[in-house]
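User: Quick sanity check before I run a bigger batch. Here is a single chain. Can you write out its predicted 3D structure?
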Amino acid sequence: MKGWHTSPELWARLKPLARQMRRKPTGAEERLWQHLRNRQLMGFKFRRQHSMERFIVDFYCAEAGLVVEVEGPIHQYQHGEDQTRREYLESRGLRVLRFSNDEVLHYLDKVLHQISTALVSPSPQMGSAPADILNTPSPSTERGPGGEVVTPEDIFNYAYAVFHSPSYRSRYAEFLKIDFPRLPLTSDVRLFRALAQKGADLVALHLMESPALDSPNIRYPVSGSNMVEKVAYDEANGRVYINKAQYFEGITPEVWGFHIGGYQVCQKWLKDRQGRTLTYDDLTQYQKVAIALKETIGVMGEIDTYSGIGRIL
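Assistant: Done. Predicted structure follows.
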């Protein structure tokens, strides 16, 4: 079937048929299209009623190698033709997802979840994970194409950097709400090494082990009770007040507004200690947390500047 070519005559008949089907979609097709069009689903581009050899598929995403079909009642009587169609599409290296009209109309969230999962799963056309970096010569170390050692820590740090890429978080935002993150791999050793180093920098920051945390950028200039009474942020002066007189200074709006999960870090840390007197260690810890967030924002911005990262996300 891989060598099956469509005659020009058949192709000429299919194209106007596809246009007609776009103009008169079924209710289920139209509803699903409203969630796929204009890259709404995780940034992937879909085409609808796309001609493919002698077939017209309902929805097709070329970059993910994915076909999505919405089936009405007529498909109950054409199992043989549907099987032939599926075998042909899969012979082209495509994956095929099929949903009934009822599933799309009444269980759309589940349908979109399944499509999202397929979009970020490796397609047959992409093959398996790049072996030239991650071959598996031993459980403790890996070797790249030049014989250089790749340790488990390198792989972890690479993943940590990718997961902190602003582009990655933006593209997969909806999927990350419902499933575990996908880790895109690269066969570019230089890119792998650069990202692994940035990941290592982030790990050191988040474990509070980075020398950058010794920076005196965050100040606590006013002595007093150190009681956390009311937490307030003064954006104009970059101050976080813990009571009427005392404050941390040098905290930018980006640092103050930085979220991890559903929590605004700088605010939550203090609110969890409301009504308490902060010790010297507490004051030092908060200063380091704020510096860690500031440095994290900087490293995240640097990750997206690397040439080649756009190709793996």
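The two ends are 32 Å apart (CA to CA).

User: Great, the batch can go ahead then.
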